[in-house]
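Please fill in the sequence for the structure shown.

STRUCTURE ENCODING:
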C-alpha cells in the first residue's frame, strides 16, 4: 500500500526539514519541487536555464514546466511506496493538475499537512537561513515576494483541501523533533 502526503507551509516554516524526516521515517519519497528546480539550475539543464532568474527573484516558475518535472519524478522507483510532496501545489491551477496526476496514477492523498508559523517568527528564521545557506532567493526582496505569493496563491488552496476533509494543521513552532512527533501522531 502506498502512502501519499502533501506538506504545505510558508518559507521558513520548516516544511523541507519535516518532509525529509517524514520520508526517512515512513520510507516514502521526498519530492521537493524546489529541490528538483535547484538541481536543474545547478546542472544547467534546458529547464534550469529557463527558470534560474525566475527562482532568484522569488516568482513561481511556469505551471507547465513544473508539472512535467513533477510527473517524471513521481515515476521514479522510490515513489512506489508513496511520497511526501513538498512545495506543490502552490496555486489553484497546480491543485487541479495534481488532482489529475493522482487520478491517472490511480492513487489518492492520505493527508495534507499544513505548517502554521506566525509571520514575525518566519522573517527571523529566513534571516538566519539566508546567512547559513546562501540561497540566492533568500534576499529581502525575494523573501517578501515569496511570502506574498504564499498568502495570495498558496494559502487559498488549503481551503480546497479542507473541503476534501484531509487537512492536519500543525503549529510549527518549537523543536524540530517535537513538531515531527506531533505530525506522526496526527497522521
Ligand atoms: P522552495 O524550495 O519550495 O521554497 O521553492 C523555491 C523556488 O522554486 C520557489 O520560490 C519557486 O520559484 C520555485 N518553485 C518551487 N516549487 C514550485 C511550484 N510548485 N510552482 C512554481 N514554482 C515553484
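FILLED IN BY: designer on duty
SEQUENCE:
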Amino acid at each position: 500500500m502506498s502512502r501519499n502526503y502533501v506538506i504545505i507551509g510558508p518559507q521558513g516554516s520548516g516544511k523541507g526539514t519535516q518532509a525529509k524526516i517524514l520520508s526517512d521515517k515512513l520510507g516514502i519519497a521526498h519530492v521537493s519541487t524546489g529541490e528538483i528546480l535547484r538541481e536543474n539550475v545547478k546542472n544547467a539543464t534546458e529547464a534550469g536555464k529557463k527558470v534560474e532568474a525566475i527562482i532568484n527573484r522569488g516568482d513561481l516558475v511556469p505551471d507547465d514546466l513544473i508539472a512535467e518535472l513533477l510527473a517524471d519524478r513521481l515515476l521514479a522507483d522510490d515513489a512506489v511506496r508513496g511520497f511526501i510532496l513538498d512545495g506543490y501545489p502552490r496555486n489553484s491551477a497546480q491543485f487541479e493538475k495534481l488532482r489529475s496526476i493522482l487520478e491517472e496514477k490511480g492513487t489518492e492523498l492520505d493527508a495534507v499537512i499544513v505548517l502554521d508559523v506566525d509571520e514575525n517568527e518566519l522573517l527571523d528564521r529566513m534571516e538566519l537561513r539566508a546567512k547559513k545557506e546562501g540561497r540566492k532567493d533568500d534576499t529581502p526582496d525575494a523573501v517578501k515576494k515569496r511570502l506574498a505569493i504564499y498568502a495570495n496563491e498558496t494559502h487559498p488552496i488549503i481551503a480546497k483541501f479542507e473541503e476534501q476533509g484531509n487537512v492536519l494543521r500543525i503549529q510549527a513552532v518549537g523543536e524540530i523533533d517535537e513538531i515531527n512527533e506531533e505530525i506522526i501522531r496526527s497522521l
